[in-house]
Amino acid sequence: MLYENTITVLYVDLSARTTRVEKRADLKAYFGGVGVAAKLFEENMKPELPPLDEQQPAVFAIGALSSIYPVMTKTAAMFVSPLTGELGESYAGGRLALALFMAGYDAVVITGRHSYPCYLSITGQGVEFKDARPLWGMLSEEVWRVIHDNEPLESNRSIMRIGPAGENKVAYASVNVDNFRHFGRLGLGAVLGSKNVKAITVTGDRSIPIPPAHLKEYFKVYRSIFDKVTGTDIMKKYRGLGSAAYVIPLNDMNAFPTKNLTSGRFESAEAVSAEAFAEKNLVRKMACAGCPVDCIHIGQFRREFKTEGYEYEAVNTNYDYELVFALGSYLGIKTTDEILMLIDAVEETGMDAMSCGVVLGWATEAFQKGLLSTEETLVPLEFGGTENYVKAIWYLARGANEFYSQLGRGCYYAAQVYGGQDFAMTVAKNEMSGYHTGYGILVGSVVGARHSHLCNGGYELDRDCQQLTSLEMAEGLLKEEKERCMINSMIICLFSRRAYDRPTIIAAGRAVGLALDDECLTQIGQRIFQTKMRIRDKLGFDLKQVQIPKRFFETPGLHGVLEEKTANEIIDFYGALVAAEMKEAGNTVQ
Amino acid sequence: MKLIFKTGVLASGLLKQGSLSNPEAIQSRESKYLITLEIGVLNIAKILKIKEMRRCIGCFSCMTSCAVVNRHNHSLAKSAVRIMTAGDLSGRMAAIVCVGCTGIRACAEACPYGALADREGGGVTLLPDKCTGCRNCVAACTFGAVNFDSTTNKPIICKHCGVCAQFCTHGCLEMEEA
Questions:
Q1: Choosing a second label site near A494 at 20 to 30 A (CA), which of A48, A310, A368, B75?
Q2: CB of B72 less than 8 A from some CB of A
Q3: A136 burial level (CB within 10 Å; 0-12, 13-18, 19+)
Q4: Domain boundary assignment for chain B
Q5: Over 90: is that where the pLDDT of A288 sits?
Q6: CB-based contact B151 A98, cutoff 8 Å
Q7: What residues of chain B lie within 8 A of the CB of A100, using their CB?
Q8: What is residue B90's predicted lDDT score, i.e. its pLDDT?
Q9: Residue A153: pLDDT above 90?
């Protein structure tokens, strides 16, 4: 905990309904965020058991500088992913990090399974196990409202919850946090669902005095960062159009995955651009607690629910680039209103929007090719067919039949059963992200510890570097992966990584008494990276076994058509670099 | 005789102590106020007003800055301003903070010990030595704007210093001439 020489960990055993708090000095070497989460996860995971076994842990951790500087608003989660069977890692904003900080916990480790649906009420005083049987089956916003109204009115409170998809253990079910923030990727929702946890609320009100010796310097640094993120152009894009501003540039690069990646260019890109959303749908912007950058964009659409009598419902939901790709171009959806309709269905049922869109893209093509019929899909699927996609999302969340249950395991598994592996667009079993930029993003997602585009930001290497050799690409990805391990130990929102360069991180840390320097930051990144590689190894991941769907090597992207041979060469270089590093550090890795 | 606190007097007092030349004093972007960590922002005859809450993004920077500047604390529970969610997930926010009553101040009226003195321009000033922590002022405010600090056992009284307004990027909280 800040200003202390220990990390405060709250352990919750759902089976025994017991909790304990440990103050651990040894975890300080892992700093916070993903570092502390990785170490706690490594200690508590059970590689020999299935991902949704009740003994598997769900670990949450806030960063070393969480909530005391602008834009430091995220919480890290680690779990065994039911989608990939290996390391699950996800981040959410909202008010969770602030609430945990105010409650006095750096990390929470949840194990076991409650005998009936419950929700946890975590405060500085302890944990209450509350009855959630009446909430089981409820949609995301309704659960939020019930808990919001039932629990004492507090401003420093966070509410996370799962929807029907999490209850039904869809492998990419999300956990929705406060206002449209999510632990989206890799299925934390299913993990909580398997533990009979419908929701978790965190409230804190402890006093956190700033030591007089740090006060002046702290406020000076706080203010300078506040001015940087609000008063300069560094984060202008996120304050203005939001992350959806990437639609047009990526489309211009041939890198905007369209109709199950049959193309990198979408003919209706302009109609679904951030500019179009801003003109037609944007009704307000919001921020995470502690961040003055209002990047959360709320779009509104109205839906007529009777053909006569002027009966309309107004729906507000959040849009971002990844959602516009996955539930827009990837499914051939041509209007902003229709994209918002799909986002609303995913939000309410509680699923990762990216995986959801990508599995439906595969299902649509498989349906077109005759691998599937309406016997499986229940409704005909075609690109641009919004109405049936909305139905399919509900079928998925509820596991409406055998087919949708298989699809709920991810399109890697579904394609094993129904065929079409060449166009089931996953990277090491995780559905692809919205960047078809080149080897950086493709290999970066394969080798990344959790197979996310955010592991190492490979799309930036694709965009910024034209002529990298395979070795340079592998080295570039490895360097950035470690840097992000360090950044995620703080936890700095990746949207603000240009505001938080290393000198700023060092100044921010020193102002509150952390003895940081360049070398120290490098070591933190390395230590966390090696921990994650050990976890990956223990969970049985083997880089050599990854098969990349052929479609990635057929559809031209930013730098034309990719060669499978080159991709494999970069993967081999990366594997060799990691093996050498782990050997030197006294670890073994496959 | 009724005790009225003039913020201007405090300001000139600081001037005499040479705080304006103190390099630690931080000049704001707009140079309207002078922030010092000793007493917050000095505003002469200005009052904090809740303005455009529909524009609030829920960043809580007002609460953070109030707690840091006025209470030297990271805890939002120490802030004189509270931002609450009102309505649904995408609903508007509500700000709960002293509205700067003029005339008879209910909080001061309810205080049996005379610990809340009328502040010039509106609102009250806490005289900590007289306060016993009875919480009558907390109950007396219809707006619910008197927060309580359980560490010091005293109410958290908004000084109308304006630091929250300075850190509000959307004009939800603003300082107005009293």
A1: B75
A2: yes
A3: middle
A4: 45-177
A5: yes
A6: no
A7: none
A8: 83
A9: no
Single-letter amino acid, residue A581? E
Q: How many CB pairs under 8 A join A and B?
A: 102
Structure token pair of residue A435? 């960047």
- Find the CB nearest B37 among A144, A209, A219: A219
What is the structure's pLDDT at A242?
96
Domain A7-203: what homologous superfamily? Answer: Aldehyde ferredoxin oxidoreductase, N-terminal domain (3.60.9.10)
Cis peptide before A147 (omega within 30 of 0): no
Mean pLDDT of A177-186: 96
Q: What is the mean pLDDT of residues A349-377?
A: 98
Residue A344 phi, psi (nearest 5)? -60, -40
Question: CB distance B77–A156 less than 8 Å?
Answer: yes
Dihedral sign from CA coordinates of A399, A401, A406, A410: negative
Residues of chain A numbered 126-145 and touching chain B (CB < 8 Å): 141, 144-145
Residue of A98, A212, A284 with shortest CB distance to B90: A284
Pick the CATH number of A240-407 from 3.10.310.10, 1.10.357.10, 1.10.10.10, 1.10.569.10: 1.10.569.10
The CATH fold of domain B45-177: Alpha-Beta Plaits (3.30.70)
Does any CB of chain B come closer than 8 Å to the CB of residue A50?
Answer: no
Residue of B nearest to A65 (CA): B74
**A88: enclosing H helix or E strand:** strand A87-92
Please tell me the predicted confidence (pLDDT) of residue B15: 33
CB-based contact, B151 to chain A, within 8 Å = yes
Taking only the tens place, the pLDDT of each residue in A321-357 is: 999 999 999 999 999 999 999 999 999 999 999 999 9
CB of A67 within 8 Å of any CB in chain B? yes
Tell me the ipTM for this assembly. Answer: 0.94
- CATH 1.10.599.10 range(s) for chain A read 437-584
| Cβ contact, residue pair B26, A223, below 8 Å | yes
- Which CATH code of 3.40.50.720, 3.40.630.40, 1.20.1290.10, 1.10.599.10 fits the domain covering A437-584? 1.10.599.10
A355 neighbors A434 (Cβ within 8 angstroms): no
Residue B29 pLDDT > 60? no
Average pLDDT, chain A: 96
Residue B85 three-state SS: strand
